[in-house]
Amino acid sequence: MIYGGIKVDEFLATTRALSDIAIAYRAHIAANYLPLLGDSRTKVGYIAVDLEHVREARRLHCEGWHDQSTVDALRYREVGGVAAADCVAVHSAPERRILEQELGAHTVIELPLLDSDADPGEDDLDARAGFLFVGSTHPPNVDAVEYFVGRVLPRIQDQVGIVPFWVVGEVCRRLRGVDLHIPLESGQ
User: Fold this and answer.
1) Is 166 within 8 Å of 130 (Cβ atoms)?
2) Is residue 141 a contact partner of residue 151, using CB atoms and an 8 Å limit?
């Protein structure tokens, strides 16, 4: 893991012979840096996290904008990440199909966010309470938290009482007037 005041392209040029595998998260990282490893023995992976061009097309549609150039630029960047990678990973089957059919990805794997086969057991379920949202600052996450706090959580709490809701990540910096202080029962 590299971070801080380092020039990534210089770092990769001097250390790529030492790496067997490099993994980039998000399109802008994959498109900018994975091509620097293309002529080395390093295998490269790109974890898309989400397909930005799809997310932004949906957002623009919901907001009534028709800015195809923004969507096209994001798609082009994602194609660059796909082209530079030996393997691409996404979190869902629909994203996998888009990568394969629309962006030309050859080796795509799914890394599900949730294990639908997991069995927590009844005892574990009784000990749990509340909701957790983990997210970055892009608009769908901000909108999701605002909608959940404003419209969904009050209805749940009307039915079952106080339910904790935790918000974690950069999304907290962009919430507009959302009161995330949700009263908890004493001792929580």
Assistant:
1) yes
2) no
Amino acid at 43: K
Tokens 């029962």 identify what position? 185
Same domain, 58 and 84: yes
pLDDT at 184: 39
C-alpha angle 56/1/17, rounded to 5°?
Answer: 110
Q: Is the pLDDT of residue 182 over 60?
A: no
Domain residue limits at 55: 8-110
Q: Band the pLDDT of 116: cuts 50, 70, 90.
A: low
Q: Which of 89, 110, 131 is the last residue of a domain?
A: 110
Say if residue 90 is in the same domain as residue 165: no
Residues 138 and 157 in one domain: yes
* Closest to 48 measured CA to CA, from 116, 105, 133: 105
Q: Which of 110, 144, 161 is the last residue of a domain?
A: 110
Statement to judge: residues 134 and 157 lie in one domain:
yes
